[in-house]
Write a structure and sequence with these properties.
Helix content: 25-40%
Distance between the termini: 49 Å
Number of helices: 12
Strand content: 15-25%
Shape: globular
Largest sheet: 8 strands, mixed
Structural class: alpha+beta
Number of strands: 16
Oligomer: single chain
Number of domains: 2
Order of helices and strands: EHEEEEHEEEHHEEEHEHHHHEEEEHHH
Radius of gyration: 22 Å
Strand order of the largest sheet: 3-2-8-9-10-11-1-12
């Protein structure tokens, strides 16, 4: 298993094999038999969502997606691919860093005595099936943010430690994907226990599977499989290479960190925030946004109270409030804070960009704001080339 901050590069004998659909089904059974809660993509309520799986039959076989700025639709495919779809409304953050977590509860007894009980998360051993390369990068970023510094998040750590990650290389990017320009896909590099590449051609359906950890190799050894062959390796490599050439979006090929730092007063901020609703959807679907707040609630008697931690967004007026007064009152200042942190000052805090190119913020923005378009517009304004296109 890969640990937070560990690339899985422990000493073990790497394995590679080819699985068929029976092998995929057996993979789910083996993981459940090992006590894992298997989570993966499935079709529900008109979307491909992440949920607990009891069988590989629940994967979205034969389903794809149509994406555009502010638009998401699932569609039937002409084949039975299980992983030929782009990022949905959820990310693995929903399981590792849940939207709402109770921290403690307090009760007043009949004699007025107060008892406070710290909340201890129920132990869970996850197996994530179908982690895209962009989301695999996002998990590594969350590892650095939430467990890599002096202020560690024990709730995140308890869920993340020991999680078994099954990555799936991207072979069919969506119209809003731009992982190539963020260096986050479509191939997987490190941090996985097993990596799958889905192949559909004249030779039929199969998955090229390779291990990335000792436990990954042990799980692979329990599956019905056959030795990896050169034809499958070539087909897998060609499919991933083709995906890299078919990204629907791209960031401008400039130093984004410098671009954000040097253009805080650009006119473009007014343009984009005239369209921004400050709803915070982009932060909710982002696989790396991690900000939280706390709220205290009590029952009507006043004898029971609870403290909950919940997701928060830099788009909320109260997010930056000091002594009851918001620091960022305008939509311009709040949007600028989000984008400049994601693409710029994240480097200063955590050593990398906070964006992995998944495109979720584009798809789930009600007004279709596209951060790749905004970054390019900022660059063009800065260089005086906005009217030359």
């Amino acid at each position: 298993m890969t640990e937070p901050g560990n690339t899985g590069a422990l000493t073990y004998e790497a394995a590679e094999a080819v699985l068929d659909r029976d092998g995929l089904e057996t993979l789910v059974r083996v993981l459940r038999r090992r006590g894992r809660t298997v989570v993966g993509p499935t079709v529900r309520d008109g979307a491909i969502v992440l949920a607990e799986l009891e069988s590989a039959a629940e994967l979205p076989h034969g389903w794809g997606v149509e994406l555009e700025a502010g638009r998401y639709r699932i569609r039937r495919r002409a084949d039975t691919a299980a992983f030929a779809h782009s990022a949905g409304p959820q990310s693995w953050k929903s399981f590792l860093h849940p939207e709402r977590v109770r921290q403690w509860s307090a009760d007043r007894g009949p004699e007025g005595e107060l008892t406070v009980q710290e909340e201890t998360p129920d132990p869970v051993s996850y197996a994530f099936l179908g982690v895209r390369p962009c989301d695999l990068r996002a998990i590594r970023i969350l590892d650095r943010v939430l467990t890599g510094g002096r202020h560690r998040d024990p709730a995140y750590g308890s869920r993340r430690t020991g999680a078994f990650l099954i990555a799936v290389e991207c072979t069919e990017p969506g119209a809003t994907c731009f992982c190539v320009s963020m260096g986050a896909g479509p191939a997987v590099d490190e941090g996985y226990d097993l990596a799958l590449t889905e192949v559909l051609d004249a030779d039929g359906y199969r998955l090229l599977c390779r291990s990335g950890s000792a436990e990954g190799a042990a799980v692979l050894a329990e599956l019905p499989r056959r030795p990896a062959d050169d034809a499958t390796r070539r087909a897998a490599a060609d499919a991933v290479g083709s995906a890299a050439q078919r990204m629907g979006r791209s960031m401008p090929a400039v130093d984004l960190r410098t671009l954000m730092r040097d253009n805080l007063e650009a006119d473009r901020w007014d343009d984009v925030t005239s369209r921004c609703l400050s709803c915070g959807n982009c932060t909710m679907v982002c696989p790396t946004c991690f900000c939280t707040t706390t709220e205290d609630v009590s029952d009507l008697t006043g004898d029971h109270a609870e403290r909950w931690r919940r997701w928060d967004s830099c788009y909320d007026l109260d997010f930056s409030a000091l002594h009851g007064v918001p620091v960022r009152e305008s939509a311009r200042s709040r949007y600028r804070q989000w984008l400049t942190h994601k693409l710029g000052t994240w480097h200063d805090q955590f050593g990398s960009s906070g964006c992995v190119g998944c495109g979720r913020c584009i798809v789930w923005c009600p007004t279709g704001i596209d951060l790749t378009v905004e970054a390019r517009a900022l660059h063009e304004e800065a260089t005086g080339t906005e009217n030359l296109r």
